[in-house]
Write a structure and sequence with these properties.
The protein is built from four helices and seven strands; from the N terminus they run H-E-E-E-E-H-H-E-H-E-E. The longest helix has 18 residues. With 147 residues, it is of the alpha+beta class. The two termini are 30 Å apart.
């Protein structure tokens, strides 16, 4: 396992689960203190390699009890948003395209697309994602693909 400082510097001292800043000077015993999590994995020819990520101690502990949840931003106007972690895992395993949300207008869909791509660049830095916005039925559908 790497040291916290190296992992923190790689992740810009942001928790990969809640996307909030982590205090580099906080105690590792504090709920908001830094911890190293090896959740994400990349495929190689003979198995997987764990990727170490920075998390708050409380976020990392809760992930051990429950499946990790990466919330959509409360600033977005999205309907029926897909669970982000599960979507990334399915796309990592099978590729393809998946509808992740519906938005009432195109500007909301573009805002959600920009936020999602930025969030995924930190959540799954080993994958390259793209989004598509398609009109239909008086709303706009946001789809995610692995490039």
């Amino acid at each position: 396992m790497s040291d916290i400082s190296g992992v923190g510097d790689n992740d810009n001292w942001r928790c990969w689960l809640c996307d909030k800043s982590v205090d580099s000077d906080a105690s590792v015993n504090s709920d908001l203190g830094p911890s190293v999590d090896s959740y994400a994995a990349t495929r190689v020819k003979k198995g997987t390699v764990a990727v170490e990520r920075l998390a708050h101690r409380a976020c990392n502990t809760m992930k051990g009890k429950n499946a990790p949840v990466v919330p959509w931003s409360e600033d977005l106007f999205v309907v029926d948003p897909s669970p982000i972690v599960e979507t990334v895992e399915r796309l990592r395993a099978k590729g393809g395209r998946e509808i992740v949300a519906r938005c009432p207008d195109e500007s909301d869909a573009r805002q959600a697309s920009e936020w999602l791509l930025d969030r995924l660049s930190r959540l799954a830095p080993d994958l390259e994602f793209s989004t598509q916005i398609n009109p239909g039925g008086g709303q706009f559908v946001l789809a995610l693909t692995v490039a």
